[in-house]
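The protein record minuted underneath.
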Amino acid sequence: MIRVVLADDEAMVRAGVRAILGTDDQIDVVAEAADGAEAVDAVLKHRPDVAVLDIRMPRMDGLAAGAEIRRTCPDTAVVILTTFSEDAYIARALGDGASGFLLKSGDPRELIAGLKAVAEGAAYLSPRVAQRVIAELSSGAGGGAMARAAAAKEQVSALTPRELEVLGLVGAGLSNGEIARRLYLVEGTVKAYVSAVLLRLGVKNRVQAAIVAYEAGLVT
């Protein structure tokens, strides 16, 4: 069972999202919150697998709440759910360690798929958000793109061949279980590899690792 804390300052939105999640018997919304501070308190109390946070909320916005949750309860994955898709929000959310970024205007099935993905240790971006991230990585003019590629290649140069292989599959969006099946390893071994890769790259989560993999040319 995937245990979820849901935070949005609009009760009607919370009810709608809860109804969508309720269609899947593998997901259980254990608590709701109307602002970011309440969301942090609920996560500390219930220790859910995933916290789903709106961005614009009173007292503490979803981005600040997500950063605090990642600091105080690192086993809880953070998914940002919002109507906003501006690059600044995406960059800040991913920089603070969010594992997913979904748009409220997306397909309800995408919400369920995204929660399941991050609960399994993968990262999940709404297709529209993923397009923005990839476009940003690809659009650097001349030296900018080349400098990022060179820096990424330097970052991954210290990884072992197996760690590089795992990083490439993380960059392709595979979960630990999928990587284990692809490489004929047990899932616990893959989890250890992923943790080592994140530590050696100096990144906070799988999304940031995937960006390094993309810039280093490990993912096409």
Remarks:
- The longest strand covers residues 27-33.
- Strands lie at 2-7, 27-33, 50-53, 77-82, 100-103, 124-125.
- The chain has two domains: 2-134, 141-215.
